[in-house]
Design goal:
two-stranded antiparallel sheet, Jelly Rolls, mainly beta, 3-stranded antiparallel sheet
Length: 91
Amino acid sequence: MAGGPLNFPLPWHDTEIAAMEFQQITLPPQASTGWHYHHGPLLVTVHQGTLRRRLADGTVTAHAAGTSFVEPPGPANIHTGDNPDSTTVIL
């Protein structure tokens, strides 16, 4: 969708210049992202539907439309996301 450099530090980033990218992710009904992790932190907003996340420690959380959450970076934060409903999830 959009992206570019930031000329101010982010609280989790150790340099003065970072980049931020914006994407729209669509997850069809009954679909899953598969197990994965991110190389940088993600700030996620659920625009439509409910995303269910499973963390490596077994924790399961549901994020409904209108909510936001942070996914921390690194292999220690492996997780999967799925759409258990009959409507499309849009992040």
